[in-house]
Amino acid sequence: MKPMRYAGVVGAGLAAAFALSAPASVAAKDTVSLGIVAFLSGPAAGPYGVPGRNGAEMVIEAINKGTLPAPYDTKGFAGATVEAEYIDESGGNTKQVSEYRNLVQKREVDAVVGYVSSGSCAAIAPVAEELQKLTVMAVCGTPRIFEEAPREYVFRTMSHATADNIAAAHYVKEMMPDVKSYTGINQNYAWGQDSWRDFSLAMTDVMPDAKVSDKPQFPKIFAGQYGSEISALSLDDAELVHSSFWGGDFEAFILQATPRGFFQQKKVVLTVGGVSAYRLGKRLPDGVAIGSRGPYGILVRDRDTPLNTWFVETYKEAYGEYPSGAAYQYAQAILATKIAYDKAAEAAGSFPDEKQVRDALTGLEFESFAAPVKMALGNGHQAITEHMYGIVQWNEDAGELGLRDVKVYPAECVMPPADKTSVEWIEAGMPGAKC
Amino acid sequence: MTQFMDRTVIGLTLGFALVALLGVFVLPDWLMSQVLIAFSRALAVLGLVVLWRTGLISFGHALYFGLGAYTVAMLGKDLGVTEVLITLPAAGLVAAVVGFALGFIIRKYREIFFAMLNLAFSMVLFGILVKTEALGSTDGFSVEQPTLFGIGTEDSTVKLTVLFLAVCTVGWLSAVLVHRYLGSVLGSLTTAVRDNEIRVEYLGYSVAQAIHGKYVMSAALTGLAGGFTALALGQVDPESMVNWTVSGELVFVTVLSGPGSVAAPFIGSLLFELLRTYAFELVPYAWQLIVGGTLLAVIFFLPGGLWSLISKLGGRDRAAQPGGNRGEGER
């Protein structure tokens, strides 16, 4: 009896699991289901995940109603209504790979859109290729995705992180030409290390006379306390400080450095400062240079095009605040997918299959909410866009944060050409850059 | 006693054979992949159960999990070795060697000191990996496509099926061996050590050596688990392989499963995986609440873990359980 009981227990468990697994309903022809992945819990939810989800939600609603501004005012994805399923990106890469499989094989979505963390993207890309599912990455920064292997099913609709730091170097040269030495404070994990590497490499090209400090700071991610690092940076002779801090760490750093007079003493360039700009408001000190990973968020708030005005106003009405970078970036990923569906349907003369959608997305050039996007790298799978930096200035009259001296750098100035990896290109002195 | 041992072995054999058959012929890919990840983790939990029977809980077995995972990944990346018949045993071996070395220090400690010392060692490895840009820092790096007998495959279903069968085989073998070990004289010392170390010493056995042996065994099993997980995921990174949260997850599943049987880790781990999947799907904003709530419920109502439920349902006599084991909460 006993062996049977063992077998019975295991068998019953698996049978139950299998019964639960049967797909609830097969998607009808007139809907396209999207799995949308963003941090819905944890430290990256506030600055990235939730605005990203909101941006996606808002644009999907508009697409289903056909209320996006022209030329995107056709209903749905090639006429099909979009159904979105939202998934939390936290829980680690192991969990993300399982959840990705569940989205594709169990919930049978037509495409997966999203991902904020570079770690998630790096883990998901090979699985997406293996399961052959259209996957549009929205935010993650690592250039590795398309540089380490060619991809057929994976796309990314914004520039990768190299652009942030090359543009930062150009901006420093333009706005602070007398800087003689520089240092940095970056979180000690892949994002922070890569950002500092790209920035210091780019500075040797752009401002060869400026000296790099031998004491850049690398505090632990989510450390929250930066007293000793701020002291060390203050004692350093370098006049310029580079930082790729984001979210809670960024806010903690600003709030702890301000009373120490840090921002009067140093020039500061914050590559993703735009992400937290609205949250900090007046507490973000005047005079610091901020970026927002491209033409997004506060950098393009006042850009007066029908698409951008619609985006800013609709978002503010729906969520009570200005859209930050991630809202734009998720919305852009959704928009790119819609355009690919519409274009593929037009070419095919009927509802397109997945291959036709991917073909349409490959090498696509389109006008996004704030700026044009070109799928130029990684065989047409990796986008390039212009990049922007500005200097923070509190607008007393409007009672809100504003920017001055906003500079725009063309995509070909800040992103490598198709035949070189980012590091190779910067190390070679950025040949062929069109600035 | 002998008869009982054989029955457990037969039960394990039938159970694993059934799972393997279901996997190959019935289960959809996503579920097979969940069983693969669940059973990989179960190997580590099996190692923790061996320690738990002695009353020891480690909050740092992610050290061995990570060592196993990075061994498999680095053999492929740096030496071009992708043969699973080499990489997987290497994963277990590296973990066992490190476990043997650290065991000389760790075997002297009990209770919270044992748990925290393990945590300290695992966080040292985490710190090193995060600072190593050559290994991709926190982003980690991809694992090369594995090969078996020198044959690789591009087909994801074939790859998944082969790995799935491998984890079933290794899981079955490990469970049988651990069961045999627990039934042996040395293994029977586990409970004795937990109950009264001095008496064990007076019986002429070395408590330190007994614990050292178990520690190495659990390290090797956890290394193997890490190796399987790396192959299943195709990606290694410190956050999901070496961080304390991984150790916590292993302890979580151990408590959920209960120490009652060598089959418990496999059932518990699979239920944990499915629980998390459905919590993710049904409440994407508060899935942690469901997972945590389940553990609380198990601790309150099933102090012996899920296995105690199974043995109660099966009407099994407590005394018939291997090692006459009791649940933690009943001590």
Automatic annotation (TrEMBL), chain A:
SUPFAM superfamilies (alphabetical): Periplasmic binding protein-like I
Top-level taxonomic group: Bacteria
Annotated ranges, domain Leucine-binding protein: 31-397
Keywords of this entry: Amino-acid transport, Signal, Transport
One protein family per Pfam: Peripla_BP_6
Biological-process GO terms, alphabetical: amino acid transport
Cleaved signal peptide residues: 1-27
InterPro entries with a match to the protein in the record: BCAA_transport, Leu-bd, Peripla_BP_I
Similarity section: Belongs to the leucine-binding protein family.
Protein name per Swiss-Prot or TrEMBL: Branched-chain amino acid transport system substrate-binding protein
Organism expressing this protein natively: Thalassobaculum litoreum DSM 18839
TrEMBL record, chain B:
Pfam families associated with the record: BPD_transp_2
Topology within the bilayer: Multi-pass membrane protein
Membrane-spanning segments: 12-31, 84-105, 112-130, 160-178, 250-272, 284-310
Single GO MF descriptor: branched-chain amino acid transmembrane transporter activity
Location of the protein in the cell: Cell membrane
Primary localization: membrane
Keywords noted in UniProt: Cell membrane, Membrane, Transmembrane, Transmembrane helix
One term under GO cellular component: plasma membrane
Name of the protein described by the UniProt record: Amino acid/amide ABC transporter membrane protein 2, HAAT family (TC 3.A.1.4.-)
Species of the source: Thalassobaculum litoreum DSM 18839
